[in-house]
Design goal:
7 helices; alpha+beta; six-stranded mixed beta sheet; about 210 residues
């Protein structure tokens, strides 16, 4: 953006999954409503009761994280904090698309984490819902639950649903580990934590999903 406005690689939007009201665009509203109804039914089958149909077109908050790397580093710090690592002296980030092995072990299901809604969630295109549940749920765009192999491979046909309630709780616990980090990456990750927690809180207070674009 111009005129001194902040720019974000990752937008954090709190609003309805139905992005238009029926008055604004009836055809798009009906199309989005049908998909959201399917998602709501599938989530109910997974034990998650949430109203995703109210307030179509609503958008109550728009924030963002400066770079995708900041979110990745926040997840990396969370994973290493569980190992008791010195977070100010972690090994340098790997090159290109190589993944930190501690994070990789969590993503591949070889290690458990107390930060599942932060770590085991889509970095872009996912949702956090204003209800509390234990683990993120991955669904396909076609309306069928995604299998583990699909989401581990980063398929574009799946989308993740986390809990903004659980996310806020995880970030509150994690902040004590990252708030005083001295390095630039650590400070940027702490800022990402602050932005993500603020968005999660708006999701909870307004009973609307947090959407990562």
């Amino acid at each position: 953006m111009s005129d001194g406005m902040p720019t974000h690689e990752l937008d954090l939007v709190v609003g309805s999954m139905i992005t238009v009201s029926p008055e604004d665009d009836r055809a798009m509203f009906e199309e989005e409503k049908a998909w959201v109804e399917d998602v709501q039914d599938l989530l109910r089958e997974e034990g998650v009761e949430v109203d995703l149909l109210s307030m179509p077109g609503a958008e109550v908050y728009n924030g963002g994280i400066a770079t995708f790397a900041d979110l990745y580093n926040l997840r990396r710090l969370a994973a290493h904090s569980e190992k008791g690592s010195d977070l100010d002296n972690l090994p340098a980030n790997l090159e290109d698309d190589e993944v930190d092995p501690v994070l990789a072990n969590i993503w591949e299901g070889e290690s458990q984490t107390k930060y599942p809604h932060l770590i085991n969630h889509q970095g872009e295109g996912g949702y956090y819902l204003p209800v509390d549940f234990a683990e993120p749920i991955w669904l396909s765009y076609e309306g069928e639950e995604a299998d583990e192999e699909e989401w581990e491979e980063g398929s574009e046909d799946v989308v993740s649903f986390g809990s903004s309630v659980a996310l806020s709780r995880e970030l509150t616990e994690l902040e004590g580990h990252v708030r005083n980090l001295r390095g630039a990456e650590g400070q940027a990750a702490h800022q990402a934590l602050h932005e993500l927690r603020a968005a999660a809180q708006h999701s909870i207070e307004n009973n609307l999903p947090l959407i990562l674009w």
